[in-house]
UniProtKB/TrEMBL annotation:
Residue ranges that the Swiss-Prot or TrEMBL entry lists as coiled coil: none
GO cellular component: cytoplasm
Top enzyme class: hydrolase
Record-listed Zn(2+) binding positions: 78, 81, 150
Single GO MF annotation: zinc ion binding
Family matches, as NCBIfam families: folE, PRK09347.1-2, PRK09347.1-3
GO biological process: one-carbon metabolic process; tetrahydrobiopterin biosynthetic process; tetrahydrofolate biosynthetic process
Record domain GTP cyclohydrolase I: where: 9-186
Species this protein is from: Caldibacillus thermoamylovorans
Name of the protein in its database record: GTP cyclohydrolase 1
């Protein structure tokens, strides 16, 4: 992955300020390009992280029962408009042969995937596929609920509207009862 170039971001922000008719040399805007560059470095730090790396450490516990971490908050940037979207991710999996991961690893994987220019549908898929690939569970289900500023601040202007995406793999894809169990626990 290419290294983030803060100087180039600063130049871009100056161009945007000039493009909207502002004076980037005005007192209140003097440090704005630098602040935005630092903010982007933080907001897009997931570009250089493979979410699967969080599942390299596993534990063994005699269980093949549901594990659900719900209401994991996230913030991301819509790759179409570069405005935020945010909400919660719910991650469920059923371990195979007792192969489990630390609960914080699920949240870290969500964070790594969200911290890049992104689509909600892709976040949902990448988190689920990373877990399936590295943990080989009986099944995984990921549900993402988010509000998109591109629908709130511009365009259709519908604040409060939520988008929900789901991905079901393994037993959650084939067993409607297991899927319903997860959805009822999320509510």
């Amino acid at each position: 992955m290419k290294e983030m170039n803060l100087e180039q971001i600063e130049k871009g922000v100056r161009l945007i300020l000039e493009g909207i008719g502002e004076d980037p040399n005005r007192e209140g805007l003097l440090d704005t390009p630098k602040r935005v560059a630092k903010m982007y470095a933080e907001m897009f730090h997931g570009l250089n992280i493979d979410p699967r790396e969080y599942f390299n450490t596993v534990f063994h516990e005699e269980t093949e029962e549901l594990v659900l971490v719900k209401d994991i908050p996230f913030y991301s940037m819509c790759e179409h408009h570069l405005v935020p979207f945010f909400g919660h991710v719910h991650v469920a999996y059923i371990p195979r042969n007792g192969k489990i991961t630390g609960l914080s690893k699920l949240a870290r994987a969500v964070e790594a995937v969200a911290k890049r220019p992104q689509l909600q549908e892709r976040i949902t898929r990448l988190v689920a596929d990373s877990i399936m690939e590295k943990l080989d569970p009986l099944g995984v289900m990921v549900v993402v609920e988010a509000e998109h500023m591109c629908m709130t601040m511009r365009g259709v202007k519908k604040p409060g509207s939520k988008t929900v995406t789901t991905v079901a793999r393994g037993c959650f894809d084939t067993d409607a009862e297991k899927r319903k169990e997860v959805l009822s626990l999320i509510k």
